[in-house]
Records
---
Amino acid sequence: MTPRDVSGDDSRWSDLDRPPLNAAALRRGLVREGGLWSGFEVVAGTGSTNSDLVARAAAGKAAEGAVLVAEEQTAGRGRLDRRWTAPPRSGLFFSVLLTPGDVPVARWGWLPLLTGVAVATGLSRAAGVDTALKWPNDLLVTVGGEERKAGGILAERAGEDGVVVGVGINVTLREDELPVPTAGSLALAGAVSTDRDPLLRAVLRSLEEWYERWRAAAGDPTVSGLQETYAAGCATLGRTVRAELPGDRSLVGEAVAVDGDGRLVIATEEGVQEPVGAGDIVHLRPA
């Protein structure tokens, strides 16, 4: 699907509770000399900002720090190729291009976890909502005493030296608009603000801070403080979980740690501690 530029969207005020992003003001506030963000574009709609940015990077049309935001995604993807859809302007749907060439590739797996920490930190500051992270990259909020997913992160390689990280956050999604009962939004979680401009600015500034800190430590999750901060905000740790693993294998046990490679360590009843690097995690009981 070809991206539609915001300026050509005649229906952008169709929902007055959901005004469009102020692209010019956001660009002025985020793109600055010496900063990470090198470009900032908002399109009215596209299939997937991740797919678009990966294609631009492959064609040499995007530099590190490029940010692509869509007011609506019609083919957004989550982990395991799950679809991510939401009404126009009801959330923040964006992708960024990172090229951490001075960080060993073996540590690039920390980028989605780093993004989760940055998103949670930025939203805590700007929305006043308590958030938690479900390993590896879901953002959880509390609605009516229940944990619900309000956001997700997807990282994809872009050529030999790049990674595109996509973020989707439900901001003003209403109860009757939820795709599944386990979904939530910042509004439903009682956010003090659902103005998407300051929310996006706070998230991107937080991401810049964490990325630069991680990069300065050559991607070391301990030196950068990333591993400790992620663990402190991870709702998965201390819980009994079921990991649905590749090859139709499952593993049940207590999530006891996130190791130096960003893997979830699960302790089974047999006394074995097994690190899980990929899979779907189901929380079986509260911490």
---
Amino acid sequence: MSRISVRGFAVASATAVTTVGAVVGVAAGQPASVNAEATAADATIADIPAGAQAQVQTASLTQQADDASTQADAAALKSAQEAARKAAAETAQSKKDAADEAAKKAADERKEKALAASRSASRDVGDLLGKSSYTVAETQALARQMMAGDQFQCFSNIVDHESGWNYRATNASSGAYGLVQALPGSKMSSAGSDWQTNPATQIKWGLNYMNDRYGSPCGAWSFWQANSWY
């Protein structure tokens, strides 16, 4: 029989090496205290009695099987982890895509509502224009449709004090005229030739004046509160 090294059977673990060493030690008549692993490292199959060779080979093959099983378990774990990461990434991407789609849909709906409101406001303004006279409610409705919603109250506060929403109001002493009491009233002709009879023209001029001088109707109202004029 050729001298086949015990290490050639891949006795890699401490348990397998100890088993082989013990068998070798007993076969050689060595004391039990001899280091089993060192003895196993130097021994060969030829040094082991024939009856013990099968045990050595079995121990070696068992260790190889254990090592193969451990490697297979590690590979399976790695594969499972990779699959889990891939699944998590796909789930995250799906959620992101769904969120993006929902956000786009919501934005489109808001845009459509804004366009519909704008068209409605344009029709409402058109319905109010060209009349021979206007009520306070109609004049206020025009103003609401001609400026940002958060500026209307400030604009209204000024008009309340200046003219009480009377677009034909005239200050007998100064000659100031209209909703915003332009002085002289003819200044409002820059917004339209019908400045004397059309509240929309007066609102347009007053809004431009407040924006240019104070930044906004609310800026003008803050100044008015401090000075009782603007």
---
Amino acid sequence: MTGGHRRILVVEDDLETAGQLAEELTTSGYEVDLAATGREALSRGSERDYAVITIDRMLPDIDGITVMRQLRDDGIVSPFLIISALGEVDDRVRGLRAGGDDYLVKPFSFVELLARLEALGRRSETIAKETILRVGDLAVDLISRSASRRGKKIPLLPREFQLLEYLVRNEGRVVSRAMLLQHVWDLHFDPSTNIIDVYVGRVRRKVDDSQAYPLIHTIRGIGYCLRAPG
């Protein structure tokens, strides 16, 4: 994994094992979040965009496979590395078919864990570059037609998604109401319509409300611009 996207979620109920993994991964240059239960994994996994999620199959409340399936159903695309003492062929096949991207059997070598994380990270970055547009902490997934900020999904209607996608593709540029009407609605400019302002208002509330900083800015008398600070 390169650049700033080196955050990993480690889902492990054994506190000693989790602590060792967190310490070794941090020393290797990763940022690490920990989850000790399935419920905590579901909460953390849906809040942030992780480069990789490592997950133990045997958790105290919800088993790891159920957690993976739920996060996949919720639109989480981060690769999963299953780490489990269940190492039979049937166990590995079930884990991979349930949504896992790789499977590592306990006990394992930390060097092998690092190698598998790097491989999954490279694959994740390649997919993300092709299908996900990013501005600041906003991610727009062109495949699932969904958006999120800091890993939290933003509920958008189809036209709202089209509007946001157009603004993101024109990051840093001022786009006029006429441009939005033409490219998002395929209509010629009608000076009497307020449809643009209505939809931008809806999208702005969904994207910017309760966030650390706004992304959608009004350029008085001209139109709108989507940009992150700095």
---
Amino acid sequence: MDFVENYVESGCKMTAKERGTGLNKRQERPLSIMPQSLVDREDPRPLHKQVYEALLTSIRNGKLPLRGKLPSERELVDLFDVSRITIRHAIRELVQQGVVTSQPGKGLYVAEHSGGFELQVLKSFTATAISNGRVPGHRLIEARVLRAPLEISRPLFLPPGADVVVLSRLRLLDEIPVVIQTDWLPAARVPGLLDLDWTVGNRSLYAELRQHHHIHPSRGQTTLSARLASADEAEMLGLHSPAAVLTVDQIAFDNRNRPVNLTALVHHPQRYPLTLAQSETGDIAQY
């Protein structure tokens, strides 16, 4: 699917936030886990919430690995330049959510999580995230109508040059970028789809198709591959080049075997790993 790959590599651009904190040597080791600048006293959010979100971000993006030990309370106080009460409040929230566990006499550790996200062609990113106890979101990259090249029109059973809606988003879990997703849909089947506000952080494409267009995906096909990330992809996903990405190409059909949408996904391999459950009988138990 050359057009899909080229489209994602060359057409998806988003500027990453600049980082930098001006550290002294005493701060270098603990601060290396932090994804961005620390607390901002001009920020309306409470200080403990800023500390909580900074630690959660470092856990979600792997800078604090599973089963990894958190810095000590004293290190966190020095790192964030806040009181012990603020640090304890932030840690308490992480412990209550099961993100962090306390081992008496040893310290705080990142809790174990499930292995990955089940590969589904008919289940939306939003539904998958919620079923895994995560908060879905997205940033809009592009939403427009274009004349489809053969690589897009052919699998959608459209004549060459037919109009298609293209919707490209950076998908987020707990506000962390994990997947670049681009969907192509026959424009004639989804009038008004682009009139919706796709900058809203938790809008599900499949939910909109079902509710407003009465389109119900019922079967699909998925192709998995891997390649090196482009510079734009690496920037959006927070990868250090050269870096590998998992690519997932999918097409969904309705119950009359009409194509619903063609999807190209570029996955961060650590933040959004995929699992495939199989059995001889077809009965799958969740572990």
